[in-house]
Amino acid sequence: MAQTLLFKKILKENDVLILDKGYTRMKKRSFQIKIPQTILKGKTQLSTKQANESRLVTFHRNVVERAIGRLKKWKILQNRVVHQYVPKLNEIVCILVSTINKFDGPLYKDDSYKNKYVKTIMEHINDSTNELQELMNKNKNYRYELVARNRNEIIDFVKNTKYLPAYTISNIRSISTGYYSMKLSERYFVNSINQIKIYEHDHVENCIKVVGIASRFTSVKKHTLILKFDPQKPQQTKFYCSCKSGARTTNPCAHGLCILMLIQSTKKQLPQLLVKQGTMNYHNAVKIERTSSYYQMLYDNIMDCKIYKEWKINNELYCICNEPYNEDEWMIKCSICKELYHPSCIGQIQEEIEDNIDEWKCPYCEEDSS
């Protein structure tokens, strides 16, 4: 009741709230609610219009999710809070937030990019169809020719196909209209490079189908992607994917972006296809110390009192899946935060991690140190 009264004081009629799906019941209020769309019963993905509208919502909510993600990196907030800390929880959170604000960089470093991305999204927000969706129709007699079935053949195809644009990272970032899609696409890139196959359309010009792109939710499910290229205008590339939001026209999903990264990497002599061995030097050590991860470790040591130690022994959970340690499952320890992770939970491959196991950093620490 108190929270409802507070909302009434702060919010005005017709204010727009960008929320997640947990706030569906608030639609009955006098202010506008923008929530990501839900797939209709009997459907496998959002319609083009639904996906476009959801993209606008998730674009604005992304900064909130990233801020929450930074806060959840602190051990004390990753699991249930010990009851002795509850009376001081407000003060503890204030200290954590202040540390993040002091030592971590801004979530948006350049507002001009944000405005540009919003403009791109709004240009397509009312599109009702994706012209490439029809090319995925199994009932139609569309013919594709298999042109690449493994990594070496894919590299040869990309190098020798003239209609594939010479993408730059700047091109891909602009096409993505967002930070989170770029981060996800890097994960798909690593997971899919040895699994995908490429087909070329037999009569639609400059059009390919990519089969076997990994899903981040389950290793069993694979997605199929249709791309149509403009050789002279990289940013005019068109996409359709079989994933939940793959029908949107505002920007490609992360599966589409990972294929652009593949093309860019291949044409730039594969810098992202090679595993680089790195060693910690003084410069990197200083850089890490200036981030909140360093103070996070200090704070965890301070909070590691007897009560907390006893509780942790009986309740310790690991990885983003929050499961107890299992000797039968291989896990990797982050060289920075010392947390344990299952490679499959963070979209990585055990064999590739083992090549750089002493210097391996989890995705959260990797983001902080970049």
TrEMBL record:
Residues 118-145 form a coiled coil. PANTHER family: OS08G0421900 PROTEIN (PTHR46364). The keyword Nucleus does not apply. Pfam families: DDE_Tnp_4, PHD. This is SWIM-type domain-containing protein. GO terms for molecular function: zinc ion binding. Residues 316-368 form the PHD-type domain. Gene3D superfamilies: Zinc/RING finger domain, C3HC4 (zinc finger) (3.30.40.10). It comes from Adineta steineri. Keywords: Coiled coil, Metal-binding, Zinc, Zinc-finger. SMART domains: PHD. The lineage of its organism: Eukaryota, Metazoa, Spiralia, Gnathifera, Rotifera.
